[in-house]
Write a structure and sequence with these properties.
The chain has twelve helices and eight strands. The chain has an eight-stranded parallel barrel with strand order 1-2-3-4-5-6-7-8, surrounded by eight helices. The model has no long low-confidence stretch (mean pLDDT 95).
């Protein structure tokens, strides 16, 4: 059975880096990200237009490449969480969370009893066709599934202590775009109010023994927040990386051509 490598690195106190998948419907990107050295992929089913079959292929490609597949559901529904875990996801991201009771219920869906309320629908592909007992499978999957709760609003920040105290929450991930809008400073990622608000959450995460995380929009922003204590750090999305590298390549080629004419 496969181990959640991202969970293991976080348990050792390390910082992990990932990248979002939101636009291109290709499992091959997961393999490329694995070769590049990312720790996890953030497969987005909230804003991405992927269907379940596409995501299942992405999850399988990620697992085979040594990258942890973590999927964001569109809303907090058992039917979404359970099916993605049964498809092989090693973590679920819960968006727009503000209510501790709703969070506790959603987190319970990610683990089998007695740790949670997940229904047992394990098929052979989930355990790599290994002959394992129910007890062994339950123990392994409970240990190797991570729960990620997003903090995206002022209300969530105000309820941070209650949300972080929910049993089973592993990672608190800031959504800085929505948070900036909620704070009344849309898109101002370097605004002191946004930075101080996120800094306070990092402190609370440490107090509650929850890993602080953030999904950023650039490499520079990812490095900025990693240096400030974030340990689960997303650096943009696959579409942004492709465009950034394409522009860099075109600029280099055009510069070479211009130089040759002189």
């Amino acid at each position: 059975m496969r181990v959640n490598l991202t969970r293991e690195r976080l348990a050792r106190g390390e910082t992990v880096f990932g990248c979002g998948l939101q636009v291109y419907r290709s499992p091959e990107i997961c393999r490329a990200f694995g070769a590049a050295g990312f720790d996890y992929v953030f497969i987005d089913m909230e804003h991405g237009a992927y269907n379940l079959e596409t995501v299942q292929d992405m999850i399988r490609a990620a697992l085979e490449s040594g990258v942890t597949p973590i999927v964001r559901v569109a809303e907090l529904l058992y039917s979404l969480v359970a099916r993605l875990l049964d498809a092989g996801a090693q973590g679920i991201i819960l968006p727009r969370v503000e209510d501790p009771q709703l969070l506790a219920q959603a987190v319970s869906w990610m683990r089998f009893p007695p740790a949670g309320t997940r229904g047992y629908g394990v098929n052979p592909t989930m355990v790599e066709y290994e002959a394992r007992s129910f007890a062994e499978i339950i123990e392994h999957l409970n240990l190797n599934t991570v729960s990620v709760v997003q903090f995206e609003t002022v209300t969530a920040m105000e309820h941070a202590d209650q949300l972080l105290a929910v049993r089973g929450v592993d990672i608190a991930m800031v959504g800085p775009a929505d948070l900036s809008i909620s704070l009344g400073i849309p898109g101002q990622m370097d605004h002191p109010l946004l930075i101080s608000t996120i800094d306070r959450l990092i402190v609370k995460c440490v107090e509650h023994h929850v890993v602080p995380g953030i999904q950023t929009r650039s490499t520079a922003m990812a490095k900025f927040w990693a240096d400030r204590g974030m340990r689960f750090v997303g650096a943009g999305g696959e579409h942004g990386l492709l465009l950034e590298k394409a522009r860099e390549t075109v600029a280099a080629l055009q510069g070479s051509k211009a130089g040759g004419r002189e």
